[in-house]
Specification:
Blueprint: H1 7-25, H2 29-36, H3 40-47, H4 55-64, H5 70-83, H6 98-106, E1 109-114, H7 125-135, H8 141-154, H9 156-159, E2 166-172, H10 174-177, H11 183-196, E3 202-207, E4 221-225, E5 234-237, E6 244-246, H12 249-265, H13 269-286
Parallel strand pairs: 1-2, 2-3
Antiparallel strand pairs: 1-4, 4-5, 5-6
Pfam families: DUF5753 (PF19054), HTH_31 (PF13560)
GO molecular function, one term: DNA binding
Organism: Streptomyces lydicamycinicus
């Protein structure tokens, strides 16, 4: 697969264009489904980029929308072809959050609020090896190893010398205090967190316990933004059985405001590093 082809993003862009064509035609998803003798849910999944789309689907939809410009049809057909290729993550088998990985791989910036654990992009191998089976207790050992490998591979975006991911993390103090694996693992993890926070494109802020009530108490979330104007921002909320992707402008705006409040309530980047270093020392002291 060409390195500049991201199937997840291609599906998303294609779905947005197909939705635009439908709306220009003044048709509802239900009307399109009736014309093609398919379910309305299929049309919705094609438009939100959560379902693989074939060139035949594109051809049929362009017929319904009476698209006469062959250049547009050819472009959409090529996007459909690209969207069916495989990203690097497919080599690891069935990864439940593969859609998110595809978006993360293409994102220019990522803002994360995490309340209970260190985000995957900043985890050490030891921490990942301890936290993954803790959060997914029935995960088979071979699947655990794949999850760890994928997590470490994802981190390459943060340190990519040509196109590093702009990463901003607001972290609740509980993620620093909870002993995942052992005090040694935690000390190494927090030392790594301090080191990563010194990169010019990585910011880590801590919300201490004494902050009190704050905007993130309703749950963790991430906001992904992209360089291409055609790709709208996405709010990602991870679930146990399914994940939620919010793309409507109003939804993204609300979460963006929440994140601004979290950043304002958290310690500064410099004070956060000092706070994390002190927490690392407390784990070292606990080792005896």
């Amino acid at each position: 697969m060409a390195s500049n082809v991201n199937p997840t993003v291609r599906r998303r862009r294609l779905g947005q264009e197909l939705r635009r064509l439908r709306e220009l035609k003044g048709m509802t998803a239900e009307e399109v489904a009736e014309r093609l003798l398919v379910s309305q849910s299929k049309i919705s999944r094609l438009e939100n980029g959560r379902r693989s789309i074939s060139q035949r689907d594109v051809r049929d939809l362009c017929g319904v929308y009476e698209v006469e410009d062959h250049r547009i049809v050819d472009s959409l057909m090529q996007m459909a072809k690209d969207s069916r290729q495989q990203g690097w993550w497919h080599a690891f088998g069935d990864i439940p959050y593969s859609v998110y990985i595809g978006l993360e791989t293409e994102a220019a910036s990522l803002r994360i609020y995490e309340s209970l654990l260190v985000p995957g992009l900043l985890q050490t191998p030891g921490y990942a090896e301890a936290v993954i089976p803790g959060t997914v207790p029935e995960l088979a050992s071979d699947h655990l190893e794949k999850r760890i490998q994928v997590r470490m591979r994802r981190q390459e975006r943060v340190t990519d010398p040509e196109r590093p991911l702009r990463l901003w993390v607001v972290l609740d103090e509980s993620a620093l205090r909870r002993v995942v694996g052992s005090h040694l693992i935690m000390r190494e993890q927090l030392d790594h967190l301090v080191e990563m926070s010194q990169l010019p494109h990585v910011t880590v802020q801590v919300l201490p316990y004494d902050t009190g009530a704050h905007a993130g108490m309703s749950g963790t979330f991430s906001i992904l933004e992209f360089d291409d104007a055609a790709d709208s921002s996405v709010v990602y909320i991870e679930g146990v059985t399914s994940d939620l992707y919010l793309e409507k402008t109003n939804d993204v705006h609300k979460y963006t405001i929440m994140y601004e409040h979290l950043r304002a309530q958290a310690l500064s980047a410099e004070h956060s590093r000092e706070f994390i270093a002190a927490a690392a020392k407390s784990h070292a002291d606990a080792m005896g």
